[in-house]
Amino acid sequence: MAKISAPVKKNDVLTGTVMDLTYQAMGVVKVNEHYPIFIGNALPGEEIKYVVTKANKNYAFGRLLEFITTSPDRVSQDNSVYLQTGIAPLAHLSYPAQLKFKQEQIKSLFQKDKLDLEVKPTLAAPAPLHYRNKAQIPVRQIDGWLQTGFYRQHSHQLVPMTDFMIQDPKIDATVEAVRDILRELHVSAYNEEHNSGVIRHIMVRRAHKTGQQMVVLVSRQRRLPQEDTIVAQISELPEVTSIIVNYNPKATNVILGAQERPVFGESYIEDELLGKKFRISAQSFYQVNPEQTENLYQTAIELADLQPDEVVIDAYSGIGTIGISIADHVKQVREIEIVPEAIADAKINAKLNHVTNIDFTVGKAEEILPEWVEKDQAMDVLIVDPPRKGLQPEFIEAVLKAKPKKLVYISCNPATLARDLRLLIDGGYIGTTTQPVDMFPMSNHIESVTALTLA
Ligand code: SAH
């Protein structure tokens, strides 16, 4: 059989028109119907000159050389650092076009699975920049200086920066101030190659409503050199109410180690969502866009049309934010979450808000729900908010057996959402609309809420 060769080869310089933008925010040029070339920083409609950097049998990658025409949706980047790091992969696309892009991504996945749901226009975030309430900043030694910044795309090479574009500027200021304290005291930065040096990451969390900030110093050593001085100086920074030393001695990409030690203030910060208080520890999952989280939850609450006599299951509950926010409106809330520490936080959060009609179960949702269904336990509304991999087949099977009359699916991955909706709808549910909610402006992540009812 003749070897099928690629229609382009490495180092070819070509021109073309960008037809599409992938989920990963790569522009797509096609040399023929079946052969796409993926090119970063290229937008649909643009005519570009590019060089082929890698040619596979069925597709290729290219690097943009020059724009022949540009898209009206392009936002010029005055700071090319962002493009190098991938910190904000959609920053070259205007915000309205980003919202449209996210809606279209869901629509096309639904079309592939023949799902007949209306995908509403994406709910814009109140602030498309400077929204993140959490930063995990790598620390490295560059030319003798301890630097903070972000990794160059697809690498662990640090690009120093102080304005992180999508983070709360008060967090950026804290990171910079901590960097300066560490520099002044000649504390060494982590060296990945030799697994040597001390400070690996600076993590900062800020509670948007209360302003409390937590600084986590991720260290290769159990105890920091001059720890008392470092802690005393960081504790003087504005809003810092909690400092934690996290011990991570391993040669690993995982940022946080398992052991941590509060060295100043409490081991948590406290924030508010929809009028309820939440305690957040260093390791807890907490939505990163606090203002838009309230809109996300509000959307889910409205779509669930909650009634005072209903029993609601909040599966994949994290520290209990959704369940606690809705408890006043229903008879009982039952939370399922796999991380024991998150459930410990959720229990404290329930107490903090005087919520008593709530119970907590630690375990895998795909194991707990089938047990409950087996026991014929009451469930009127099921709210799910799974990680990117979506729902497990055993979980869906249990849902189709118990048939709660309402199901609200909060999704951070439209591909697994489409897969799961297909199964739920084939199993007897009706879905009419999906509401995308932009939780991650400037990034390609897509969050949405879908309500299902029984046919
Ligand atoms: N609803 C929460 C958390 C959503 S993140 C909020 O809005 O803050 C998804 C959560 O699912 C995480 O807390 C994660 O620990 C949990 N999780 C992941 N896999 C799980 C599983 N198989 N069963 C139960 N919970 C799981």
TrEMBL record:
GO molecular function: rRNA (uridine-C5-)-methyltransferase activity
Domain TRAM: from-to ranges: 7-66
Active site: C412
InterPro entries, per database record: MeTrfase_TrmA_AS, MeTrfase_TrmA_CS, NA-bd_OB-fold, SAM-dependent_MTases_sf, TRAM_dom, U5_MeTrfase_fam
UniProt-listed CDD domains: AdoMet_MTases
Pfam families referenced in this protein's UniProt entry, alphabetically: TRAM, tRNA_U5-meth_tr
UniProt keywords, alphabetically: Methyltransferase, S-adenosyl-L-methionine, Transferase
Family: Belongs to the class I-like SAM-binding methyltransferase superfamily. RNA M5U methyltransferase family.
Name under which the protein is recorded: tRNA (Uracil-5-)-methyltransferase
Species classification: Bacteria, Bacillati, Bacillota, Bacilli, Lactobacillales
